[in-house]
Amino acid sequence: MSPTLVRHQLPDSASLRCEGPPLPAGSRARARDWAEIQEGMLVPLYEAAYDRLGIGPGTRLLGLGCGSGLALLLAAARGAQVSGVDADESRLELARERLTPDGLPEHTQVVSGGLEAAASGDTAFNVVTAFHPVGCVSTVEGLAASLTAASGLAERGSAVVLGGWGPVERCATAGVLRVAQRLAEAGGDRAAGPARWQPSGRDDLEELAERAGLRPDGSGRVACPFGYADLTSAVRGLLSTGVFDAALRVAEQRQVEKELAEALHPHQRPDGTVWMPNVFRYLIARTR
After folding, report:
1. Which residues form the Methyltransferase domain (predicted)?
2. At CA 3, angle to CA 85 and CA 51, rounded to 5?
3. For residue range 16-61, what is the model confidence (pLDDT) as tens digits?
4. Structural domains of the chain, with CATH
């Protein structure tokens, strides 16, 4: 099975990212900020899950919400065959750049299509990952539906990795993300709508696995500090996560950036860098 990227086309209720209608401007720039500033801070989460599962030759991995493809690239570097799906075409464009550079064999593919297009031939996946985005109000039902659909492309007993925020008291970024929640609600978005962040509950991942018909099979915690060269980079990185999208729909971008920068000031060090210790959590579940 060749490395494959597809644009996720399940119904809106099964969206893999916490997002609503596309933002009118700037989404391409935010996708680039995600790839260049923010995504690398989740590498410890990716690597911890891969180490635990022994990802390598023989692994046929499907990444749900693969974004700009860094997690897929790390798996491919271990010898895994990888495919990915995402709802964000801007991020997928960057993933294609990462996974199909000049010099790779001709059989490397990047295609567009539905979730079923991620499967090549009759070979089923044996690992499914969904590292993002548990912690957004609007994602649980949709992600459960996507996981159920993806499980149909995997072998029985395959590992499914779910990722999310750890305890709120151990995530310095939690206080900053509350700015997104407050601005969205102040602008009238009080429903469980697009990209509204909320603190993770202790059993969120287990509840998600149960909704998707999966069997929990172990979990772990990983330190994923968020570090930025300066305040501007921190603002750009956090805006790229999608958590502030609802706030940007109801407030001017300048206001969102100003209040986000103010919330970041307590985490800025004397040399101008920004540092926020966080703990993320992952759950290993199995298809039935």
Report:
1. 62-138
2. 85
3. 333 333 443 468 899 999 999 999 999 999 999 999 999 999 999 9
4. 4-171+195-225+278-286 (3.40.50.150)
